[in-house]
Here is the input.
Amino acid sequence: MDLNYTDKIEAAVSFIQSKIGNKKPLVGIVLGSGLGELAEKIENRVVIPYTEIPNFAQSTAVGHKGNFIAGELGGKFVVAMQGRFHYYEGYGMDQVTLPIRVMRELGISYLFVSNAAGGVNMSFRVGDLMIIKDHINLMPNPLIGKNLDKFGPRFPDMTRPYDLNLIKLANDVAASLNIKLHEGVYLAGTGPTYETPAEYAFFRTIGADAVGMSTVPEVIVARHSSIPVFGVSVITNEAFGFTEDFENDGDDVVKAANMAAQKMNDLFITLISKL
Ligand code: HPA
Here is the structure.
């Protein structure tokens, strides 16, 4: 990690504050593949392209727009990332997670994360939503390197990576909106390959319900700073029962995420309105 990392964070924070003011956002939101539409529902919004923000990486992944957006959602002041950075794009973990540190410095009280994921649990179907209740990290840990004491301890606790109160509230909200939710374990690999059938079977055996290529680095960095996290996976493909001509395809994943986005948007917005 760069010696100047904290300065890089501060430069991005100052730039963003020069555009949105010093008011603290209640929630930071990271929108995954095909899930960026929620950002269009933010009212009175200020849109800052990543290209303008000092030290931000650029979005190269399919279905990721590349805007940092501030405004009101569910009546609360929020900031959102319309598109995230992935390790498989070639970015270091410090670049992948820099926006989370920036959001922390902006003063968020909660982090909401979303992603498109493969359904490893055989009861999951394309278009289902899964609340992330725990994760398995098979990526490099983003906190490797000199500890940033200002942000949190050397050895952060990971007993409760996802906030139990937010999960309970989400289940109540989903019931009132008639949205069916699963709860499960998200496993993060580096990608960019999708898994082999044997890898999907292995992940099921070790306790994963869904698998993807993101989210966990951001969650670890948020938890380093004790920020409560709420996460949802949108199941975009079923990682079992492969027919002879089935192939995983990035465009299909984005399409499936787009189709389920409405449910996730309703869940996020109502949940945020109750914070
Ligand atoms: N594997 C990894 N990442 C994914 C998948 C998958 O099956 N689906 C969407 N993102």
Observations:
- The first strand starts at residue 27 and ends at 31.
- The two ends are 35 Å apart (CA to CA).
- The mean pLDDT is 95.
- DSSP finds six helices and nine strands in the chain.
